[in-house]
Design a protein that fits this description.
alpha/beta, Rossmann fold, two-stranded antiparallel sheet, 7 helices, 20% strand, globular
């Protein structure tokens, strides 16, 4: 099972690395970071880079497409090579997935029209403008398309995907291997329970422009 994760300037590192860690632990799964050109691609902080070891042309038909989000999504929407690759790779994929605002890239490629999908809570309503049906869920499975909410939800998505790709026992074993047993120090991780002031402060940390 070959998983391809496309990188673009300004992606959020955990969107890519969280699912990568889950899937790379699974037997028989190979993960490749791809981009328009091989080499390092800087994340949204500009201080961490992940190396793309293959180009889009090198990996035209992976079994799994996994698109991360991040502030760079805005510019990536105009990256025709990326959007065309997503669209073409999806046609042959077994699974096509996204984390956070990566859902916008799937939608821009025409893959979410009329389908329920999720993304980061701060940008969820905007999915409707791309033809998707926004759903405020951590992970949404719609046929072979799996979308995840913001950033950390990518780990949940990858475990969900692994159970679908392989079996639940494998996903459970990987979850234990990475000791994914969340016990956050604060109860402020959901927009549904946060105050308006906290939501605005959080959006200020990720807002583009």
């Amino acid at each position: 099972m070959h998983v391809a994760i496309p990188l673009y300037p300004g992606f959020t590192a955990l969107d890519a690395v969280g699912p990568y860690t889950v899937l790379a632990f699974a037997p028989g799964v190979t993960v490749t970071f791809v981009a328009g050109e091989t080499g390092p691609v800087a994340d949204d902080q500009g201080t961490l880079s992940i190396t793309a070891t293959a180009t889009y042309d090198d990996v035209p038909a992976p079994d799994v497409v996994l698109v991360p989000g991040g502030p760079g999504t805005v510019e990536a929407l105009n990256d025709t090579r990326l959007i065309d690759w997503i669209r073409t790779a999806h046609a042959a994929s077994t699974w096509t997935t996204s984390v956070c605002s990566g859902a916008y890239l799937l939608a821009h490629a025409g893959l979410l029209t009329g389908l329920p999908a999720t993304t980061h809570w701060g940008f969820l309503d905007g999915l409707a403008g791309f033809g998707a049906i926004p759903v405020a869920e951590r992970v949404v499975v719609q046929g072979k398309i799996v979308t995840a909410a913001g950033v950390s939800a990518g780990v949940d998505m990858a475990l969900t995907l692994l159970a679908l790709m392989r079996d639940e026992d494998t996903a459970r074993a990987v979850q234990l291997a990475i000791e994914y047993d969340p016990a956050p120090p604060f109860t402020s991780g959901s927009a549904a329970t946060a105050t308006p002031e906290l939501r605005e402060r959080a959006l200020g940390l990720i807002r583009v422009g």
